[in-house]
Model the fold of this input.
Amino acid sequence: MPKLNFNPDKDIPDLAGKSIFITGGTNGLGAQSAVYLAKHNPAHIYISGRNAKAAEKVIQQIRDSGSNTETTFLECDLASLASVKKTAEEFVSSAPQLDILMCNAGIMAKPPALTTDGYELQFGTNHMGHALLIKKLLPLLEKRSSEGGDARIVSLTSQGHILHPKGGIIFDELNTVQENFWVAGSWRRYGQSKLANLLYARELSRRYPGITSVAIHPGVVATDLVGGQKFLQRAFIRVSQFGTLLKLEEGALNQVWAATADREKIENGSYYEPVGNLSQEWLGKTAKDDALAKKLWEWTEEELKDY
Done:
């Protein structure tokens, strides 16, 4: 059972003046994170997603909590690089600053499919969409860092990254649906995308040391990612995690901790399990492979060069 030793009401500091961008902030962990953070007086929270009606509910929940934080919905489909580019450029043109980027959105264990840009669906959504968003928003984060601000990127990965295929990331097959994973294929594709989130966060910290970049595992949480699985997969998750499946309110704790804890208590480029526990236990050789992280960065940059 993860150590739930973080109280968001008491342990999140005053966030006055901070601007926060949360992907997938219209439901699940992203929405709960927005609610937690809004109670501590940030200047502005931006929540991105595909469902404007869901966003309205989150914004109303924030208002009902008594928060005066301005909250704005940004329509964005991470499975479409054109959508990410449009959203990011509109944000940069209008937002005066960015302090915290929480890369929260994601999909899990989906059947074989491609994004609109021709990437394997889970890799394209979980990694490529966020990588382009990060690329576009890095100048704002660098600016905050250069001004002495506490710029952060919090990337949600998963213990499930250990399900990645042999070799970690099969670069030659990322423009296919990768149907050749005969055993637990949907989970191996998921593991590949979550490994990419972890490696990319560490490489970000190496290339942009002025920005605190960490990867976090939220725990296994009763969100739509679990509820949306087929019956047998859903049953497997619930049985295998019996006694440890977290409520939504618990699952959001690790990411808000990473976004707001004293910077001196956070090791840049590292991986944390709930709550705020620096973890090496789940990091195998592939997850610690700096050469693979560098290759992923360079491959991603080449893929995104026209954006």
Confidence is low (pLDDT under 50) at residues 225-243.
